[in-house]
Model the fold of this input.
Amino acid sequence: MHTKDRGELVDGLGLDPADWEELRGLGHRMVDDAIEWWSTLRERPVWRPVPAEVRARLEGGLPQEGGSAEEAYEDFLRDVLPYPHGVPHPRFWGWVNGSGLPIGAFADFLATTMNSNAGAFQQSATYVERQVLGWLKEMLDFPAATSALLTSGCSHAQVIALAAARNAKAAGDVRRDGLGREPRRLTLYGSVETHNSVRKAVELLGLGGDALRALPVDEEYRMDIQALRQAIAADRAAGLQPSCVIGTAGTVNTGATDDLERLADVCAEEGLWFHVDGAFGSLAWLAPELRGPLEGLQRADSLAFDLHKWLYLQNDVGCVFVRDEVHHRGAFELSAPYLSELRGGPASEFEGSFKDYGPELTRRFRALKPWMSLKQHGVRKLGEAIRQNVLQARYLAGLIESSSELELLAPVPLNVVAYRFVNPDLSPGEHDLLNRELLVRMQESGSAVPSHTTLRGRFGLRMANTNHRSRPEDFEFLAQETLRLGRELIEEVRSGRPQWALEANA
Ligand SMILES: *Cc1c(COP(=O)(O)O)cnc(C)c1O
Done:
């Protein structure tokens, strides 16, 4: 009921502190603790399991009444900080994760302090993002007119890029009519090594996962171009509509890069959209001596990549480039009376703002992290860090090759090394079981965290190096520790069949 009575209205509920000085003390403590934590990373395990009593507390119910900020921080120190995923540690090389630059953490703090909505508006955050996008285009040698957007990551970037591709290559107006009215089914082409985020995007876009053809790869895990041509021809003959080729710059399994020039040629000849998933591998462009395999990258109609992998920034920040602005904006622009533009004020820069280039309206101010990091470090140094990571991977590959008890599972063209412990007495199935057990023991001891994969049916350890904190001795340790644990497991096999190996007989 409307009223002119102030009644129950109060002046604030203590959601902001009554005493800002008190908060200053807590804030300083948090910064001090963060710096202490970074500077002593090496002294702690990379990873350790979350103990049962901590888990129990993390399953506790909704606080009806609050406590103090200090108490919340104490809970964080006790239950959260000691049990990390492990990404910032110098011996974390699992999956693909950026090690995190201190400036990035502070930039995120400052960005959330401002709490800007970077979807639109005349405000600094929009200009910072435009500037960062301009720098990213310049660093990857894309034309300045390329349309671009920062995203939560490469998965989100693929959705945006493939939405633009789908709409551009469909016969009708997909935004209005959906895909049901398309005369021919759209098909897309990747390889068996294409990241699963591409398939997810294809599914989300209503194209159907089966429309994405998974082509075979050659000895170096690069897409077989002959197979690509045949698949396109076969689909055309079957009355389908080939629409898009997805090339990968740096596959997640082995770091392989497809022959981008030849993929671009095929797309040009066949009239297909050329998308490149360059999540981490495209950043190798920053190191001039690593550019060779990436030639052709700039011919992509769209590129998806991450800044939270090989630009060492914290999650989450990725980017999408779309060569043709009309296709990019055409896939997402939508007007509404509450989002129309005014002569002045914050709403004076609504049209053509970031909300028109992706599905999000409210957007995090994620540009501040790359903006401050590039100002602090400069692109040349970041390129050198990338080159160092590749040299380190080659060094590890050399250590593996020089041991008769270790075996490389794939070539090492970039920063990913897949390998395993081998012993002549073991069967193929036993090799898989032994290496699984070896990896879990290594991870649970907290000494190092590589991850795993299976290549041509063989299970192996997988070291993906996007870590600016690793030193040569860390790779020597990894090789040594693999040998030590492998020999320990062989001993267990010799002195009776241990629990972990029983499956091999099943
Ligand atoms: C990590 C990765 C992705 C997915 O990116 P997210 O940032 O995790 O969403 C896609 N492709 C490749 C090759 C990747 O390494």
